[in-house]
Design goal:
The protein is an all-alpha fold and about 250 residues long. Helices cover about 70% and strands about 0% of the residues.
Length: about 250
């Protein structure tokens, strides 16, 4: 039975990963390629903080740029490796999406079974939407998806905050759904809101420092959230539908 559940979870993850790759190729990748043209064409700009003292000079500007680079607020390494456009990029995207889909599929299956609910198509879709809220919407409220050419805070700070946001969202949503007393409902909302009250890590920069037009960045955020939402719906439906069809087979 356990082996069958694992096979169903792997199959569901592969289906969702393949679907996500197609959706991203249509909606997300064209925006990334366009952003990379702005990133490559943009001249190097010193990342000077918005608030400066009167000691502004060429040396001060260079020193400020060096400090920001040391903190990880750089414009990117031109010599960093990246997959070539076309088949290679798509292949790496497909592989990462499938591995991600399999991992999330196992998490989703374990969560549904731990909750004591029957794995059906409807249950899978509902839990898929819950996964979308926990793993995507909650952290995106503080750290929206970023594209090439955008300047962001230190990556380790963002990873820590993202993890805290996901954990709090998961715990808070579970309390909201499975606890009846109103006091627990309030507690659940408070837990979900806690990382956002503390605030996500951001840096104070001049608006002109980003090489990506604001309109393109907004389109990227919306396209990323849309394709990720579809990924979670397909993942949940695949987990529930396949388990309903094959999970109970002798």
């Amino acid at each position: 039975m356990i082996a069958r559940i694992l096979l169903v979870a792997i199959a569901a993850g592969m289906i969702a990963g393949a679907f996500a790759t197609i959706a991203q190729a249509v909606r997300v990748q064209p925006l990334i390629l366009e952003a990379e043209t702005y990133e490559l064409a943009a001249p190097a700009k010193p990342a000077v903080a918005a608030k400066t003292t009167k000691k502004s000079s060429a040396e001060t500007t260079e020193h400020s740029h060096d400090k920001d680079a040391a903190k990880g607020h750089s414009h990117g390494d031109e010599n960093a490796w990246g997959p070539a456009d076309g088949f290679e990029r798509t292949a790496y995207t497909f592989l990462s999406n499938v591995l991600l889909g399999i991992g999330f599929s196992m998490v989703l299956t374990a969560a549904i079974m731990t909750a004591g609910m029957e794995l059906t198509l409807k249950t899978g879709v509902i839990w898929g939407l819950a996964g979308f809220g926990v793993f995507t919407i909650a952290p995106a409220m503080g750290l929206p998806p970023e594209m090439p050419g955008m300047i962001a805070a230190d990556i380790y700070d963002r990873i820590i905050w993202w993890g805290a946001s996901v954990i709090c969202a998961g715990i808070g949503l579970a309390v909201l759904v499975f606890k009846e007393p109103i006091a627990f409902k309030v507690l659940g909302l408070g837990v979900i809101a806690l990382p956002h009250i503390i605030g996500a890590p951001h840096i104070e920069i001049h608006p002109d420092l980003s090489s990506v037009p604001a309109e393109l960045a907004v389109q990227f955020v919306m396209a990323s959230l849309f394709t990720t939402g579809l990924f979670w719906i397909v993942l949940g439906a695949s987990v529930g539908g396949l388990m309903q069809r094959f999970g109970k087979a002798a």
